[in-house]
């Protein structure tokens, strides 16, 4: 991957925004509602698959190295935190959002919303089983997978849908402008001309 200075700045910026998003939150019993999903999805849309994913990899690595940038601190032992699966999901989901937004032809608002929601669902598909696994097998708690869904998915999905709607509107308007001015490292969306 040949990175330009602009790319490095944008990757660093989205890694930092993900860290900030961890602290803009509504506390819930186990899995807080944060703005991280918004910034992860935005990274995928604006930076594309590889650079968007790189921003999240850097964010996760910095947290694992000890910077207290996760919702509950940082350090290598954070991999045993029940919410660490969501961080893995951010890496994978951001990549998928970027990849789909690069590949889909004739982008529409509905398609863009679907792309963002696909990535958000990946956050949950990885995060919720990890939550269950840590509670069940590491913390030796007698919980069921439906408990993990009720704690790690149900309370936050509504807010994530709202964030996806907002991001869809914003991205649909600004990506073509930013790419035309070469302020982001990707081409604008291919719009449906019909």
Would you give the CATH topology? Arp2/3 complex 21 kDa subunit ARPC3
CATH level-1 class: Mainly Alpha
Shape-level CATH architecture: Orthogonal Bundle
The low-pLDDT segments are none
Q: Give the % helix.
A: 55-70%
User: Which class of secondary structure composition applies to the elements?
Assistant: mainly alpha
List the secondary-structure elements in sequence, H or E: HEEHHHHHH
Radius of gyration: 17 Å
- State the distance separating the first and last CA atoms: 36 Å
Characterize the biggest β-sheet.
2 strands, antiparallel
Return the average pLDDT rounded to an integer: 92
Strand order of the largest sheet: 1-2
- Overall number of domains: 1
Tell how many strands the DSSP assignment holds: 2
Strand content: under 5%
Membrane topology: Multi-pass membrane protein
GO molecular function, one term: biotin transmembrane transporter activity
Main location: membrane
Keywords: Cell membrane, Membrane, Transmembrane, Transmembrane helix, Transport
Q: In words, what does this structure look like?
A:
It comes from Natranaerovirga hydrolytica. With 194 residues, the chain is an all-alpha fold. The chain is built from seven helices and two strands; from the N terminus they run αββαααααα. A two-stranded antiparallel ribbon has the order 1-2. The radius of gyration is 17 Å and the shape is globular. The termini are far apart.
């Amino acid at each position: 991957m040949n990175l330009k200075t602009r790319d490095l700045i944008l990757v660093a910026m989205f890694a930092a925004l993900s860290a900030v998003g961890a602290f803009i939150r509504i506390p819930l019993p186990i899995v807080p509602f944060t703005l991280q999903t918004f910034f992860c999805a935005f990274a995928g849309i604006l930076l594309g698959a590889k650079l968007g994913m790189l921003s999240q990899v850097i964010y996760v690595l910095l947290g694992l190295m000890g910077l207290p940038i996760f919702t509950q601190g940082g350090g290598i032992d954070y991999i045993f935190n029940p919410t660490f699966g969501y961080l893995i999901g951010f890496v994978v989901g951001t990549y998928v959002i970027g990849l789909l937004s690069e590949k889909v032809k004739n982008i529409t608002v509905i398609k863009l919303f679907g792309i963002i929601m696909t990535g958000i669902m990946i956050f949950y598909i990885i995060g919720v089983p990890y939550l269950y696994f840590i509670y069940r097998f590491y913390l030796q708690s007698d919980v069921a997978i439906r408990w993990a869904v009720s704690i790690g998915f149900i309370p936050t999905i509504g807010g994530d849908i709202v964030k996806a709607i907002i991001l869809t509107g914003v991205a649909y308007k600004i990506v073509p402008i930013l790419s035309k001015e070469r302020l982001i490292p990707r081409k604008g969306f291919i719009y449906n001309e019909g």
